[in-house]
What does this fold into?
Amino acid sequence: MLRSTATTWGVVTRLFHWGMLLLFAGILSVGYYMTDLPLGPQKLKVYALHKSVGLTLLALAALRLLWRLGERRPLPAPMPAWQAWAASAAHVALYALMFLVPLTGWLFNSAAGFPLQWFHLFNLPALHASDPALKSIAKELHETGAMLLIVLGLAHGAAALKHHFLDRDGTLASMLPVVGGRR
Ligand code: HEM
Ligand code: HEM
It folds into this structure.
C-alpha cells in the first residue's frame, strides 16, 4: 500500500499530496499577510517563518519528485484525450512551480542581501551576491509564480471535484487520505 498500483495512488504519494497542500495553504496565507505588516521585530519573525517553511517545501518537493520518478502512475479513468493531456500537463506544471516558487524566493532573499536560516538551526548560502536589478526580477517571479500556483492548484482541484461529482469515476478517491481506489 506504500506504493501506487494500477488503480490507486500509494500512501506515500497521498501523504506528500495532502501534507504539502496544507503547508502551501499556510505559507501562501502568511506570504500575503506578512508584506503589509509594519516594520519591526514581529515582521522579521514572520518573514523568517515564511522562509523556513518555504525551504522545507523545497526539500519536500525534491523528495516527492524522487519518489514519483520511481513509481508507476495509476491508469487514468476513461476520459477524452484532451482532458488526460491537460491533467498531465497540470501535474508537470505544478511540479515545476513547487521548485520555482521557493527557488525564486531564495534568489530574491540572496539578491536583497538578507541572511537565510532554517528555523534558527543552520544558515544557508546565498544563491547570488547582492544585486538590486536581480532582486526586483526575482521578486516579480516569486509573486507571479505564487499566483500561478494558486490558479493552477484551484483549477486542478476543481477538475478533481468534477471527476468525483459529475463523472463519478473514482479519481478523487484514488488520492484521498483514506484507502480508496478507482472502481
Ligand atoms: C513554496 C514556497 C513559497 C511560497 C508558496 C511563497 C509565497 C509567497 C507569497 C504569496 C508572497 C507574497 C507576495 C506578494 O506580496 O504578492 C511571498 C513573499 C516573499 N517570499 Fe515567499 N514563498 C515561498 C517560499 C519562499 C522562500 C523559500 C523564501 C526565501 C528563502 C521566500 C521569501 C519571500 C520574501 C522575502 C517575500 C517578501 C517579498 C516582499 O517583501 O515583497 N519565500 N512569498
Ligand atoms: C485543491 C485541492 C486539490 C485536490 C482536490 C486535488 C486532487 C488530486 C487528485 C484527485 C489527484 C489524482 C489525479 C489522477 O489520478 O489523475 C491529484 C494529483 C496530483 N496533485 Fe492534486 N489536488 C489538489 C491540490 C493540489 C495542489 C495545490 C498541488 C500542487 C501544489 C497538487 C499537485 C498534484 C500532483 C503533482 C498530482 C499528481 C500526483 C503526484 O505526482 O503527486 N494538487 N490531485
